[in-house]
Amino acid sequence: MIDLTELGGEGGKRLTRAYVLHPEIKSNPGPREPEDALAEAMALAHALPGLEVAGGQVVRLPRAHPGQLFGKGKLEELRAMLEAEEIELVLIDGPVSPVQQRNLEKAWGVKLLDRTGLILEIFADRAATREGVLQVELAALSYQRTRLVRAWTHLERQRGGLGFVGGPGETQIEADRRAIDEQMTRLRRQLDKVAKTRELHRAARRKVPYPVVALVGYTNAGKSTLFNRLTGANVMAKDMLFATLDPTMRAVRLPTGKDVILSDTVGFISDLPTLLVAAFRATLEEVLEADLILHVRDIAHPSTEAQAADVASVLASLGVQDDVPRIDLWNKVDQLDTEARAQVDRQAARAEGVFTGSALTGEGLTALFDAITEKLDDARYHDTVRLAHTDGKLRAWLFAQGVVESEAQDEDATSLVVNWSDRQKAQFRRLKDSG
């Protein structure tokens, strides 16, 4: 993690002046318009406390220079601009190799973060739960391990010793790498314990007769605003990327009278580095347990189509099955003009399971809640269940669900005629298998 206090950050007397660069490489163009990508990168920068974002620009390049990313002429032009603006931290919206980072910092006399480093800094600032903090530390160590080639002068030293700290002739970079590996191993052990505890909580929730609705969507799409509207919970809901990092779950009664467990998940984002996807996979595991996925989409954003594609890609990578019911809320229609709003409404009307509305004002949410209730009220059918006389807990669960229509006992077992849904039947099986 970069220490902003050294540069005059939040803990210092002034904010750190930062500048954002989005390299648009002609030989490898991105999926978004460069100006939209720069706007998102600047929003990321604004999400990190301690920074004063002085500005940003798209830098068009024919190709990436292997040693310095930018060519000599552009390098000098940017150096003069950064010096004139008294910039202390440069944020590059894209991958920067360790060698490029070292050379750019030397050429410009500034600190530098690439996209991965910036997102890590935001994650470290936002993570609130024990698991979130551990995931951030693990991801940060993975990132730092790849950066050891930055090699300040002490990394060139040879290390002697007695053999139990570092073998004779072991370089400092090898010792640093080994120390990081050991720390990562400790973190993984701690995460395993946290994951086991969370699985116990999840198993307990399975016994609750409420379906789980997972809110998913691109970061800053309005998930937390919708969550707050339904639950009254004090969840951070700001116009800021990554305002929510840890999954928050609440039991809530929809205006239709339907009881559900609502889960607000971390926002997705494009080009999320692999090490971060892996580190936060557990944070998104709640989505795999969902009975219904509610995709909240910022329909007023210029890159809304690309953002929706990113969300679909992340869900697929998580292994979310196609048979899990999904509903789309095209959010923030209150930010559209009359003509754009009419066009969006027409598009939504032609699509299945798509609703337009505003989580902020509440507009259009009644139809959404009706649809959620309808999706979760599964078709019911009659079945006969035979239980051993010792299966008192399973029998009590069936009665608590209100599905038992009649009961008869013989010498061997108890027979119950039930009228239940597929979801309730699946819950019953899980309870039975868990003993």
UniProtKB/TrEMBL annotation:
Keyword Cytoplasm: yes
Keywords: Cytoplasm, GTP-binding, Magnesium, Metal-binding, Nucleotide-binding
Single GO MF descriptor: metal ion binding
UniProt xrefs under Gene3D superfamilies: 6.10.250.2860, GTPase HflX, N-terminal domain (3.40.50.11060), P-loop containing nucleotide triphosphate hydrolases (3.40.50.300)
Residue span(s) of domain Hflx-type G: 211-380
First and last residue of the signal peptide: none
PROSITE patterns: G_HFLX
Keyword Cell membrane part of the UniProt annotation: no
Highest taxon in the source lineage: Bacteria
Cellular localisation: Cytoplasm
Record-listed Mg(2+) binding positions: 224, 244
Residues annotated to bind GTP: 217-224, 242-246, 264-267, 331-334, 358-360
Main function: GTPase that associates with the 50S ribosomal subunit and may have a role during protein synthesis or ribosome biogenesis.
PANTHER family in the cross-refs: GTP-BINDING PROTEIN 6-RELATED (PTHR10229:SF0), GTP-BINDING PROTEIN HFLX (PTHR10229)
Record protein name field: GTPase HflX
Organism: Roseinatronobacter ekhonensis
Lineage of the species this protein comes from: Bacteria, Pseudomonadati, Pseudomonadota, Alphaproteobacteria, Rhodobacterales
